From TrEMBL:
One Pfam family it belongs to: Xan_ur_permease
Transmembrane segments: 179-201, 213-233, 239-257, 278-299, 305-326, 347-366, 429-454, 512-533, 539-558, 570-588, 623-643
Record's bilayer topology term: Multi-pass membrane protein
UniProtKB keywords: Membrane, Transmembrane, Transmembrane helix
Organism: Brassica napus
Location in or out of the cell: Membrane
Major localisation: membrane
Name the UniProt record assigns to this protein: Nucleobase-ascorbate transporter 11
Length: 691
């Protein structure tokens, strides 16, 4: 290697163990070998290809001839660096809040000699700094595929390098085999979010096992259709659309209201039609929010300090439901496998939810067959209200939630069933539930904004424009409209768990997701598949949901990495928003003396809509306001939104989202390929649809 390259790892091996580790990393970087006639274009292309970015930028007045002889002279590089240290200005990265030099990339005519000179001095400083701790971090980052050379920044010092993907957005595998495999892999890793919501809401509506199977099939169909729509006509990011936990809490609020809790006939259909009407109205509001450009204005006020506690509150809303249900059968609720390695392959890292559920489900089957849940003189098929023997009454709940043969979905469900619009009847439209869903659709939009931003960082070096985000929100509203028409019980939105799945699988290919979505559509017609999933014991489903809700909380709080996390301002806003987001709903939930005698304990937090403290005499308004203020995520969002936009703080401190401009997209062919609509569609709607 020529001495001018300055990237020879052998130079740093003799300096210390930490330097040796850093040298081992540099071995993986393809060296750039300068010639006598150094071409700046080649230098930039090498830096872009290898991801190498210097934290320092030198003076542009250095002559090229001087640089060739001294740029990588380590003793001199240190001296040059010291002489110029006082002439630099330090500012904060607008995205990550990390310190960087203000002159990085600011002068497009900077001579390559200064760049080479600074690169040599930068490496010399790294060689003189103890790297024992840094070496371990590099090893961990390399293992996770997220090491950012140059201090964690990409081109221009303000954008982190994406993780290495097996298949990117526009990659074309040589055959359909990898596409099918990775497409199904993506949906299997999201299985818990896709199919477990009906296991919560349908029993709460007194629906039969056959109804549960039908709702699961409907959700599979809608997930396939809406994912294809989002991949090609929304943001075009590789994001799975599905029934969201954002809509689960308000659905439980409606289900446990006084009007429906006392119904005895057709309770499932009546509640489902009420939910359908509310979801349709909320989805229309979301469509208007995105298609009119109003979302582009709201984006100026939505930042990580708002998104983080809001998404975290979505998962925390179910803390009173999770383990009280799962604890019924602790023996089939505790086991959860993730770090298990089989023949060197950590399949449980990708398929943690489906494989863990399958293994524990099999274990529960053997417990059932072995008589672990058999009680003398008790029959699991008899409703607890008709049981006359006191000994059997206390075991009825355990038998219902733990036995694998408690469901009759397999015998009652048909082999072929095609979900169709308004299959439960024509929706009801009432102001009280429609107002609730309008607030919820706004929270769902905020959730999606954070997911769009995080996903673009994982798979693409360019952020979407505000117009692309608005287009995605508008399409999510249309997807929720389809969910309301078909009757899935919840709205459809971008699943937050997508971020975790893409990071684990390293696959971000639109075609793979589309092919997997076609398989979901086909499987939704197999009624027996929905019956099998409906037979999962409720305690097992609750235990899996505990993990998914905890993951949602963690993914929400991870948005704070774009801010200055040590800022007292940010810590205070997030802490106050989360605490009051849990405490204020608890205040509204205590005004229900009769509910404690009727509802199970895990539903009490969702029963405040009919008897909350907000009483004006207008029944519809009272219901809506009590319901809204009893939802943790809505209260948390409103508090975080107000505090983040009123408490003073710099953009760097707040980690303000910086979206791409439409002008940048017009001049960037790669960005157009990533985010622009298909040509025929953009011609049909007009050029502004391309943003």
């Amino acid at each position: 290697m020529e001495s001018g390259s300055g990237l020879d790892p052998s130079k740093s091996k003799g300096s210390g163990s930490g330097e040796g580790k850093f040298g081992a990393f540099l071995k993986r970087v393809e060296p750039f070998l300068p010639r006598k006639e150094l071409n700046p274009v080649e230098l930039r292309s090498w830096a872009k290809k290898t991801g190498f970015v210097s934290d320092y930028s030198g003076e542009t007045s250095t002559k090229l001839g001087e640089t060739e002889s001294s740029a990588f002279d380590l003793p001199k590089g240190r001296d040059h660096q010291t002489d110029r240290a006082s002439s630099r200005q330090t500012d904060l990265d607008p995205i990550l809040g990390r310190s960087r030099r203000s002159d990085i990339g600011s002068d497009p005519e900077s001579k390559p000699g200064s760049i080479e000179e600074e690169r040599g001095s930068n490496r010399n400083e790294a060689a003189e700094t103890p790297l024992e701790n840094e070496g371990g971090k590099i090893s961990r980052d390399l293992e996770n595929g997220c090491y950012y050379p140059g201090g964690g920044e990409g081109e221009g010092g303000g954008w982190p390098k994406p993780i290495v993907m097996k298949y990117g957005l526009r990659d074309n595998p040589p055959s359909y085999g990898p596409l099918i495999y990775y497409g199904l892999q993506h949906y299997l890793s999201l299985a818990g979010s896709l199919v477990f919501i009906p296991l919560v809401i349908v029993p709460a509506m007194d629906g039969s096992d056959k109804d549960t199977a039908a709702v699961i099939s409907t959700m599979l169909l809608l997930t396939g259709i809406t994912t294809i729509l989002q991949c090609y006509f929304g943001t075009r990011l590789p994001l799975v659309q599905g029934s969201s936990f954002v809509y689960l809490a308000p659905a439980l609020v409606v289900i446990n209201s006084e009007e429906f809790r006392n119904l005895t006939e057709h309770k499932f259909r009546e509640i489902m039609r009420e939910l359908q009407g509310a979801i349709i109205v909320g989805s229309l509001f979301q469509c208007i929010l995105g298609s009119t450009g109003l979302m582009s204005l709201i984006l100026r006020f939505i930042n990580p300090v708002v998104v983080a506690p809001t998404v975290a509150a979505v998962g925390l809303a179910f803390f009173s439901y999770g383990f009280p249900q799962a604890g019924t059968c602790v023996e089939i609720s505790v086991p959860y496998l993730r770090g298990v390695s089989i023949f060197g392959h950590r399949i449980f890292r990708i398929y943690a939810v489906p494989l863990s559920a399958l293994i524990v489900w099999t274990y529960a089957f053997f417990l059932t067959v072995g008589g672990a849940y058999d009680y003398k003189g008790c029959n699991a098929d008899i409703p607890s209200s008709n049981i006359l023997i006191n000994e059997c009454k206390k075991h009825a709940y355990t038998m219902k939630h733990c036995r694998t043969d408690a469901s009759n979905a397999w015998t009652t469900s048909p082999w072929l069933r095609i979900p169709y619009p308004f299959q439960w009847g024509f929706p009801y439209f009432h102001m009280r539930t429609c107002i609730v869903m309008i607030f919820v659709s706004l929270v769902a939009s905020v959730d999606s904004v954070g997911t769009y931003h995080a996903t673009s960082m994982l798979v693409n070096a360019k952020r979407p424009t505000r117009g692309v985000v608005s287009r995605g929100v508008a399409l999510e509203g249309f997807c929720s409209l389809l969910a309301g028409i078909w009757g899935s019980g919840t709205g459809s939105t971008t699943l937050t768990e997508n971020i975790h799945t893409i990071n684990i699988t390293k696959v971000a290919n639109r075609r793979a997701l589309a092919i997997g979505a076609l398989f979901l559509i086909f499987l939704s017609f197999v009624g027996k598949l929905g019956a099998i999933l409906a037979s999962i014991p409720q305690a097992l489903a609750a235990s899996v949901l505990c993990f998914i809700w905890a993951l949602t909380v963690a993914l929400g709080l991870s948005n704070l990495r774009y801010t200055q996390t040590a800022s007292f301002r940010n810590i205070t806003i997030v802490g106050v928003s989360l605490f009051l987001g849990l405490s204020i709903p608890a205040y509204f939930q205590q005004y229900q003396p009769l509910s404690t005698l009727i509802l199970p304990s895990y539903y009490l937090s969702f029963g405040a809509a009919s008897s909350g403290p907000f009483q004006t005499g207008i029944i519809q308004l009272d219901f809506a306001m009590n319901a809204v203020m009893s939802l943790n995520m809505v209260v948390t969002f409103l508090l975080a939104f107000v505090l983040d936009n009123t408490v003073p703080g710099s953009k760097e401190e707040r980690g303000v989202y910086v979206w791409s401009r439409a002008e940048d997209m017009e001049m960037d062919p790669a960005m157009q390929a990533d985010y622009s609509l298909p040509r025929r569609v953009s011609q049909f709607f007009g050029c502004r649809c391309c943003y």
